[in-house]
Amino acid sequence: MMFSKFFRRQFLQASIGFIAGGAVLSGNSTGVLAQPTSHSAIDKYSLWLNGTTLRGANFYKRSRIDDYDGASSDLFVPSYDPDIFPQLRSAGANIVFLSIPGPFMVQSPYAVDADAVALLDDLINSAEEAGLFVVLAFRTSPGRSENDILNFLPQPVVRSLHRPFDPSQQAFIEMWQFVAARFRDRASVVGYDLLVEPHACINGTNDEDNFRENWRDLCQRTIAAIREIDADTPILVQPSSWASSAALSVWQMPAGDRLVCSVHQYEPFDYIQDNDGAGQLPFDFSKTQAAYQAIADFQIAFPQIPVAITEFGVKNTCLDAADFLQLQQELIEERMCNHAIWTWGDNSGNFDVRAASVFAIVTANWSKNSVFR
Fold it and tell me: Is 228 helix (H, G, I), strand (E, B) or coil?
């Protein structure tokens, strides 16, 4: 279900007005008003400062593609156990990153996607009830499709978002204003991660310098627009080049208050992904160490900007996967970063940390958590 082009802007404005007046839209697609949930006061940004406070995992969903995933009444995949968030909290995590579709449509006229909004509401409510903090990390947006990340999906790649002055950029900004208006008073929502793994074009012109500056400019405008509505919720910004630490040497965070640099760390890539059997060989940890040295250098250069490792992991079928995770977790904690591993509950790519080969190592780290909702 989606709202028409005519109603996208009106729906955004109405949502902001309703919340400013003391009510929020409910999680269904009827537009029924519900009273805000009462939460204890918390300084959300303090959770990203002064050492590692948040330890948890990513939770992933994307829109179903019938020709690829098979026909089903489920609009989003993969499917999960209904108790997936209570299980995560019971394992010791205190945060979940919702790596999910954004609430506006990918294609023009970039309408509000009521099904994606309902999914977002439901997941936040469920995570909140389980006692978890939440970060929203959108994989899709106006002008950006899921297969810009997962290029094996059988759909045309959409990435007009990264064309300067494209209309999708204004819709992207409006999407985040919509989200900020809807969730700014939810104490469980402790971060807005603007876009998962921004990167220059894979096939075709690959001008990393221009892409980086264009992405930074869009982030700058989006941050300013969010702050018109929500002055408090931290905003996470991923650097270009797939949010990799390698980009940090030339990355400059946009201006703004209460920002976090959000980094994904998948080095050594071939070992982690088990490409051509590399995961069945002893791992070379020097590339991982180099990645965290780049993070350390960024922290020294920009001490006012906290860094979080918002994706990392290894296939649970790799040789010595637990040892690799143990060493990487130690490096993350040395850098005093909050972190979320990939992934909890979805083992389609053998990254599910519930697997027996890695579960004990991951949960031992989560046992250090002392701050909970």
Answer: coil
Distances (CA, A) of 297 to 215, 291, 293: 22, 10, 6
Distance, CA of 84 to chain centre? 18
Residue 117: count of CB within 10 angstroms of its CB: 25
Q: Does residue 27 belong to any structural domain of this protein?
A: no
**DSSP one-letter code for 133:** E
Strand 133-138 versus strand 189-193 pairing type = parallel
Q: Are 157 and 149 in contact (CB under 8 A)?
A: no
Report residue 185 as tokens. Answer: 């008073």
- Which residues lie closer than 8 Å to 43 by C-beta, 6 or more apart? none
Spatial neighbors of 228 by CB under 8 A, at least 6 apart, are: 177
Give tens-digit pLDDT for 149-204.
999 999 999 999 999 999 999 999 999 999 999 999 999 999 999 999 999 976 55
Which CATH number is 267's domain given?
3.20.20.80
Report how many domains make up the chain.
Answer: 1
- 100 pairs with which residues across the strands? 138
Q: Quick check: bond before 78 cis, omega within 30? A: yes
CA-based max dimension of the chain: 59
Residue 281: CB atoms within 10 Å: 13
Residue 275 exposure: Cα atoms within 13 Å on the Cβ side = 8
